[in-house]
Predict the structure.
Amino acid sequence: MTSDTLEKERDFYFGKLRDIEVLLQAQKDDTNPVIEMVIKILYATEEERVEIDESGKLTIHGVNGDAEAEEGLGNEEDAEGNAAD
C-alpha cells in the first residue's frame, strides 16, 4: 500500500474512534457500566495490557503487571448484556 492509502485508512479509523469517544462522553452520566469500560479501553496506554474475560470483567494491567482497573458487568448482565438467569 502506498503512504497516502495508509494515511487515509488511519485517518478513517481514527475518526470512527473519535466519534465513539464523543458519543460515550455524552452518555457518561448514564449508569451503564459498559460505557465506562469502553472509555477505559479507549484511554489505555500502549504500555497497559487490557484483558476482558468471558464474564465481561475488564482488567487493565500497568507496566509493572499490577491491575490498575477492574470492573465488570456484575451478576445482572453478561458480556453481551443478557440478563443472568
In short: The mean pLDDT is 82.
